[in-house]
Amino acid sequence: MATEKYKLIYFNTTGLAESIRWMFAYSGVPFEDFRLKELPNYIAHQPTPEWDAFKGKTPFGTLPLLEVDGKYLGETQAIARYVAKQVGLAGANDWDAAQADSIITYIAAEFNPVAFQMIRELDLEKKKLHGEKAAAQAKKVAATLVRILEKNNENNGKGFLVGQTPTVADFLTVTFSSVTGLLQLGTLDEFKALGAHRDLISGLPGVKEFIQTHATA
Fold it and tell me: Does residue 17 sit in helix, strand or coil?
């Protein structure tokens, strides 16, 4: 059972931190959900004094950031892996844990670079081109995730990506789907299995209540 004091720091939006919030909520492990009042200036296009003052405290100048008993851990995948181990969502055994890790590594490698390239581009024409590339890549990643889902659930599956219980891979897959929508990269509605998977994860005990509580956040 986790006994550390956790503080998850992010902007006041879902984005990259939501899957980690959901893991805490599902496991019932208390954490401080600390949200800066601003958005990054490449999104908000306005001064961000609160974030600018805080950025120097982060290892890499990015959020989300996890504070554990006064120590800081950066980068979404690293935080997710750490939290998953602490709260019992890494996988039922070493093999499942490795499979879950491979999925979140795949998403980070195949989708995140093109998505961030689009987000941070200021030139509108280049941004449009990057957006088209990101949208195509999102569909490729979605198709791969659907294939993994279907394979794992061929025989008495519970709807998860790995094994028969939720893992970090399930939560970060929902983040992938959500970020694709937030970035307006087109719809993933054709991937029905991903929609059903998101409904499954968002309806888990603890997660459902967290979403309802933070519906306006």
Answer: coil
C-alpha dihedral, 105 to 106 to 112 to 115, nearest 10°: -170
CB 65, CB 74: distance < 8 Å:
yes
**pTM of the full predicted structure?**
0.90
Q: What is the full DSSP assignment across 80-112?
A: HHHHHHHHT-S-SSHHHHHHHHHHHHHHHHHTH
Q: What is the pLDDT of residues 153-212, one digit of tens each?
A: 987 789 999 999 999 999 999 999 888 876 777 667 888 999 999 999 999 999 999 999
Q: Is 36 in contact with 9 (CB distance < 8 Å)?
A: yes
Task: Indicate the DSSP class of residue 203.
Answer: T
Report phi then psi at 65, rounded to 5. Answer: -140, 135
CA distance 197 to 193: 6
Cα 109 from Cα 132, distance rounded (Å) = 18
Rounded Cα distance, 208 and 42, in Å: 31
Only one residue has tokens 């791969």, namely 144
Please report the sign of the dihedral spanned by the C-alpha atoms of residue 187, residue 193, residue 194, residue 197: positive
